[in-house]
Give the backbone structure.
Amino acid sequence: MKIDYLKTLTAVERMLQFVYYLENRNLYTTADRKKLDRYFEDF
C-alpha cells in the first residue's frame, strides 16, 4: 500500500494546529468535537 506522505503530513499538521487552537481558546464544545471527528475521517 502506497502512502502519500506529504498529504498525510499536511493533514496531521492541520489537525494538530486545530487542536492547538482549541486548547488555547478552551473551546471543547460539541461542534468542535464534530470538527475533530471530520479531521480523523480524512485519513
